[in-house]
Each structure stands twice: as structure tokens, then as C-alpha cells.
Design brief:
single chain, elongated
Length: about 130
């Protein structure tokens, strides 16, 4: 089994901190998009999806938390549009017209957050497994 206690302190610290930094950099990108003018651009660029439209009505004008979650939902839709396109719940031309810089930032923030969170789960699992011995 892996003996984490035998690792040097710098390695242990980086093993724990790197996924946190990766995850929070993705969160910070979404926060920036939520607080900047990109929020209105993202909301106005997707109008054919009824799910996003209902979320805009429910969450759009509310607090920062709901606006952030709306940006996350739009990011998920832009990053993984396949199912919505196949079911006809998203217009392909509208997706192609989505601003490419904003799409790249949304997809990057989504992947950074997912990779960081998955990496944190692996770190916690390895720490728990090393304590079981």
C-alpha cells in the first residue's frame, strides 16, 4: 500500500494543494464570467434551449449564487451539447454562433473544476487508505 507518511513534507503539501488550486482556478474563471459583461453575452447567446430559458427566468436576475449557477449550466450545455442537439432542444446554428472566446473560457473552467474535484477525491481516498494500515 502507499505510505503517505513517508513522503517528504513538500511532496505531501503539493499533493494536497495542487488539486485545490486547479479546482478553484476553474471556479474563479466562472466567478469572473458571472461578474463581467460576459454574463449578459452568455445569457443572450443561448435562447433556443427551454431548460436554460426557464433557469434564466428563475435565477437570472437574482443573487450572485443563482447567476453563478446559471453560468455553470450554460457552460455545461456549451461543453457537452450532444444530447440536447440530438433531442432538438438546442439549435446547432445558435451553438455555432456562440462567442468562441467565451465558449473556450466556459469549457476550460468546467474542465478545471471537474479535474480538480476528481483529483481531490483521489487525494482523500489515498489518505484514507494509507491510514487504514
Amino acid at each position: 500500500m502507499i505510505d503517505i507518511d513517508a513522503w517528504p513534507a513538500v511532496v505531501k503539501l503539493s499533493f494536497v494543494m495542487v488539486p485545490v488550486v486547479v479546482c478553484f482556478s476553474g471556479v474563479a474563471m466562472n466567478v469572473y464570467i458571472t461578474l463581467s459583461r460576459d454574463y449578459k453575452i452568455a445569457c443572450s447567446s443561448i435562447t433556443s434551449n427551454p431548460d436554460i430559458e426557464s433557469l434564466k427566468v428563475l435565477w437570472g436576475g437574482s443573487s450572485f449564487k443563482w447567476r453563478y449557477l446559471l453560468i455553470c449550466a450554460i457552460g455545461w450545455l456549451v461543453a457537452f451539447p450532444g444530447l440536447k442537439l440530438r433531442r432538438g432542444r438546442l439549435d446547432a446554428d445558435e451553438l455555432k454562433a456562440f462567442p468562441p472566446d467565451l465558449k473556450r473560457r466556459l469549457v476550460m473552467s468546467l474542465w478545471l473544476t471537474m479535474i480538480g474535484f476528481g483529483w481531490m477525491a483521489v487525494v482523500v481516498l489515498l489518505i484514507k487508505l494509507s491510514r487504514m494500515e
